Amino acid sequence: KQEVTQIPAALSVPEGENLVLNCSFTDSAIYNLQWFRQDPGKGLTSLLLIQSSQREQTSGRLNASLDKSSGRSTLYIAASQPGDSATYLCAGRGYNNNDMRFGAGTRLTVKP
Amino acid sequence: SQTIHQWPATLVQPVGSPLSLECTVEGTSNPNLYWYRQAAGRGLQLLFYSVGIGQISSEVPQNLSASRPQDRQFILSSKKLLLSDSGFYLCAWSGGHFSGNTIYFGEGSWLTVV
Q1: What is d(CA B75, CA B96) in angstroms, rounded to the nearest whole number?
Q2: Which of A77, B11, B31, B74 is the most exposed place for a label (fewest CB within 10 A)?
Q3: Which residue in B30, B88, B97, B101 has the most chain A C-beta atoms within 10 A of its own C-beta, making it the best mutation to test that interface?
Q4: Is B103 in contact with A31 (Cβ distance < 8 A)?
């Protein structure tokens, strides 16, 4: 059964810094991996989706990578801003189950 | 465009009372539908998913049930709530397993059982 882990659980950086959030998964038979943003008390907003055949996806200041062989994905945020403060979750979708397995998230704080 | 609606946004219910959370999707047909629960500091736990009307798969044994009476309607229910049912419940939809589509979430429902 797929298990997804995110490290660190919390991260605080000064504004303008580049940062990397990590996601690891136990089952390399992954169909796709998705990164989400969650603001306090709100639902999840999809940021990037990487198919198993892809190695990375980019959207604005965000870049997500996927390495199936090592069971890892990273979310790179360039030139962080206070508005980036939120919890970031990754989720892996497997081939055999019609569902997604989520990590516990990384709570990011970008200080002005 | 597709939208997902989930209600109520917040509710406080006494132990032993029934529960009904509703979720509807607009702008798509035959979506996969999901109910998740999120506990503080933990990842999302899949409770139920559905690939079609009347087709419900349960991931964990619990005090809750789900139903899909219409193609774009997903309902989470309980006959008698427990204190442990408190949490943040999220409904979600996707375009299908092998399409590789993004999964979209509703705004969530905060349930407090007192």
Answers
A1: 19
A2: B11
A3: B97
A4: no
HSE-CB of A37 using CA atoms within 13 angstroms? 13
On whether the CB atoms of residues B42 and A103 are closer than 8 A, the answer is no
pLDDT for A84-101, tens place per residue? 999 999 999 877 556 678
Can you tell me whether residue B98 is helix, strand or coil?
helix
Rounded Cα distance, A20 and A10, in Å: 12
Task: Provide the CB-side half-sphere exposure for A46 (13 A, CA).
Answer: 17
At A63-79, the pLDDT tens digits run 999 999 999 999 999 99
| CB of A100 less than 8 A from some CB of B | yes
Task: Please state, in angstroms and as integers, the Cα–Cα distance from residue B103 to each residue in A8, A90, B16, B113, following that order.
Answer: 24, 12, 33, 28
DSSP string, A1-70: ---EEEE-SEEEEETT--EEEEEEES-S-EEEEEEEEE-TTS-EEEEEEEETT-SEEEETTEEEEEETTT
Give the whole-angstrom CA distance, residue B92 versus residue B43: 15
> What is the sign, positive or negative, of the torsion defined by CA atoms of B82, B87, B93, B98?
negative
DSSP character at residue B102: P
Rounded CA separation A97/A1 (Å): 10
